[in-house]
Amino acid sequence: MLNQTLLRCLPALAPAVLLACAIEPPTSALEFAISFDQSVGAEPLDGRILLILTTREEPEPRFQVTSGLNAPQIFGVDVEGLTPGTEVVIDADVFGFPHASIAQLPPGEYYVQAVLHEYSTFNLSNGKTVKLPMDRGEGQHWNRAPGNLYSTPRKLRVDPRRAERLAISLDQVMPPIPEPEDTKYIKHVKIQSELLTEFWGRPMHLGAHVLVPEGFDEHPEARYPIAIFHGHFPADFGGFRTEPPDPDLECTYSERFRVDCYNRIQQQEAYDFYRQWTSPDFPRLLIVEIQHANPYYDDSYAVNSANLGPYGDAITYELIPYIEEQFRGIGEGWARFLYGGSTGGWEALAVQVFYPDEYNGTFAACPDPIDFRAYTLVNIYEDENAYYEDGQFKRVERPGRRNWLGEVDRTLRDFNHLELVLGTKSRSGDQYDIWEAVYSPMGDDGYPERIWDKYTGEIDREVAEYWRENYDLRYIMERDWATLGPKLDGKLHIYCGDMDNYYLNNAVYLTEEFLESTTNPYYNGEVDYGDRAEHCWNGDQQNPNHISRLRYNTMYLPKILRRIEAAAPPGADLTSWRY
User: Fold this and answer.
1) Which residues are 408's β-sheet partners?
2) Going from the N-terminus, what domains does the chain have, and what CATH number goes with each?
């Protein structure tokens, strides 16, 4: 358990305050006792018990968890071999967020809910054994993963000043998630990957949603270029709707974009895309959204990794060729293109860099950090601590998220401390943990080595060096430009808002500086910025972000086709798919 003095004093970390806190550490005899009975499960379970307390009744507490300003209170503890009837105790020694201890909770009435996020055992090919949450079709979301146990929310009076034991029963089981069904235009594929199965020591699968062009069945002789639209776990192919918007749809307000009736706008844009997709002059090609959820996250970042396994090879050499064979793809590098935003933006750029001959270009929008000198606001090679900037007599906490006016609603420490509650050993299923799982070497215990101490923020220099050599995209391009440069000629297009919520534009600036100053050869691509644009700006200078983010396909596909046609080798098939 974490030291109680530190639990109370971490936000300040000033020596004088630490000394004062050491005199009077917080205490509480309040306990929550969490258990399940045989009505919901008879077998011993491994996993993470999470306890959520919130002042808001709706939605259920498990769906309110965030690191932002309105974060509910959450605590977490690992369990192994938990049997029916055995109680797991959450008390003042268990680490939480935003308050580090139950002892710090204000007395009051709270809506309370507990969840058991179940872990499976993996016997890896290298001999290591790890316990991780297997994705069950939900895209690595602990609050709706099929089979997870949870309690019916209850309103309870909670007072840390009282010696009380509050019992919570995990009396519900999260239901299965139905598989999407094929339609005329959207097809679904799933394969068992030999490469990933060998790494993980159990059957592992890759899936995809494939949007086929108008006239696909009527033109069996046609062979098509393919565009890989990278992004987070897609339940189905998104942003495509064959029916007009629902006139009876109740309007919902978008807090993120401050736009009313945004759900109606989304339906209209999806229907407009369908009409363009089926119009006589729209490009005919295949669009693919990949499902590569794994035991650490909702996707793999589409590269090979010491902790996740050879996802890059599995996608490029197993899944993509399978899709091309099933749906008459051309099957050559000149006829493949990559695009995506945020995580998908990093993936689209990384895959192009790591597999330069297998793809013919990338549109990387608002990519996750592509230069680790600006890993959000941290320089992992020079900074001592990720959470704080230290001066002579004071320290300043690093922001984690801002809006377009620069207003900050959480810090970098907030993001990471919530993740530490959600899961130890990089198992939170959230953003900083998946970066760590993808980029880090595997530790002796079989889990990712920490880039920094998750609690204090102290950076590990050796791990940072491993990151640089293997996943810092700007550094790798600069290091290998003599061989990579000719292969990437005209293929790199990077876009980011200059007020990106997560400060991702800083890494783009550094990457642009390298690309524009390198003339042997010049990269012949594009880097562009959206004025005051937040995450995830994609190069559209004409429309606001809430519209442009819905137009990746219609905006990029004509440009992709022009690139493919211009770069096609002599004798390439440029006609069978132009009907």
Assistant:
1) 402
2) 4-173 (no CATH), 186-371+472-567 (3.40.50.1820), 376-469 (no CATH)
